């Protein structure tokens, strides 16, 4: 007999049982514990579990927040919604219960290794029902699935059966690296991009330092983080200092922070998760005053590419931003979908209309190109 339960902490689920549902995941039980310990403002965590009698058979992370409907909008569209928000404060914000995580690369539901794959659609339905029931108990009308892989038919089928609407979400950039050297990678790019990157590489660069502890430079790291966040068009969450320190502490050898120095000045940092299969770029923060002179973004990109090639890591996962640059740099894109339903029919109908105007591919041509590729 299948039963479901929602927990407020991942500690309520045994570490090995959770990880068995996500074999090989970098964002595993330890990562979610780090996120929980970081105490990110404006988010509450939920962990959904499906049991067959007393045996755990499926799990999913979830969160509660107040969601701005224009979170994935940029450019002229963002300016329009910000004007609307000034005229009608709170009009674009709703309480949200979402399966997924604001600080995970994609949403997934983990199924225990002993469970036949054919049962996964049923277990997804159970998780969706558990989310709806938990949201109802908490008085939240809007339930969503954030960044479900577009190529996962089980999510689409289960959400459609539950009456969810869907729209494109931000695609995830990935760079396969079957190259023997950085020069070979550069040779795979377009002529103008290749020429530009080689010119940048010839210029003096910052000193690069790989760290697994940043306590002594944490104030400088947070200064760079806040400055970068202020310039960002798309940002869902604001990370506290504890996020960076907890991830490095909990994940041990699977997390590193790359620091970039000009003299005694810390001018950029890059938080990375990695194993033998992939390198995941979690956050890049930089000082705009040094960025142009030292080409910090492209230096960081090529540093990561070089590390992957040197350590025979076949995939560089580079997140959900900067699509214009990533198109030039040879990235491929994995499509993501956002599914949602409000229990109030009138609000749900209004959201169906609103989504026509707040789709992410409406406001950013590069993002639209990345979405169309998926």
Automatic annotation (TrEMBL):
Domain BioF2-like acetyltransferase: 192-317
InterPro entries: Acyl_CoA_acyltransferase, BioF2-like_GNAT_dom
SUPFAM superfamilies in UniProt: Acyl-CoA N-acyltransferases (Nat)
Top-rank lineage group of the source organism: Bacteria
Protein name per its UniProtKB record: BioF2-like acetyltransferase domain-containing protein
Organism: Pseudomonas libanensis
């Amino acid at each position: 007999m299948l039963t479901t339960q929602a927990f407020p902490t991942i500690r309520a689920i045994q570490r090995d049982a959770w990880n068995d549902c996500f074999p090989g995941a970098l964002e595993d039980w330890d990562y979610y514990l780090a996120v929980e310990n970081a105490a990110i403002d404006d988010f509450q965590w939920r962990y959904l579990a499906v049991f067959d009698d007393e045996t755990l058979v499926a799990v999913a992370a979830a969160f509660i927040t107040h969601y701005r409907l224009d979170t994935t909008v940029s450019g002229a569209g963002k300016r329009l919604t910000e004007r609307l928000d000034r005229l009608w404060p709170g009009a674009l914000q709703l309480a949200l219960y979402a399966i997924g995580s604001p600080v995970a690369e994609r949403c997934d539901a983990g199924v225990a290794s002993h469970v036949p794959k054919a049962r996964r659609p049923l277990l997804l339905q159970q998780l969706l029902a558990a989310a709806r029931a938990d949201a109802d108990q908490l008085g939240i009308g809007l339930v969503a699935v954030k960044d479900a892989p577009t190529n996962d038919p089980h999510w689409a089928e289960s959400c459609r059966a539950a009456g969810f609407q869907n729209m494109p979400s931000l695609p995830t950039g990935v760079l396969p690296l079957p190259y023997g050297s950085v020069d070979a990678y550069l040779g795979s790019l377009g002529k103008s991009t290749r020429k530009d990157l080689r010119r940048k590489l010839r210029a003096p660069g910052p000193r690069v330092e790989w760290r697994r502890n940043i306590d002594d430079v944490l104030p400088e790291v947070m200064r760079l983080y806040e400055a970068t966040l202020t310039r960002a068009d798309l940002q869902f969450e604001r990370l506290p200092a504890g996020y960076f320190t907890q991830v490095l502490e909990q994940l041990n050898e699977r997390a590193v922070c790359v620091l970039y120095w000009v003299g005694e000045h810390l001018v950029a940092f890059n938080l990375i998760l990695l194993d033998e299969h992939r390198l995941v770029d979690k956050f890049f923060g930089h000082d705009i005053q040094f960025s142009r002179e030292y080409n910090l973004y492209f230096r960081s990109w090529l540093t990561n590419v070089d590390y992957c090639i040197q350590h025979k890591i076949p995939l560089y996962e580079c997140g959900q931003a900067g699509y214009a640059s990533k198109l030039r740099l040879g990235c491929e894109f994995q499509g993501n979908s956002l599914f949602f339903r409000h229990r109030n029919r009138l609000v749900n109908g209004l959201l169906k209309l609103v989504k026509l105007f707040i789709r992410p591919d409406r406001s950013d041509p590069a993002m639209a190109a990345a979405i169309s590729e998926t």
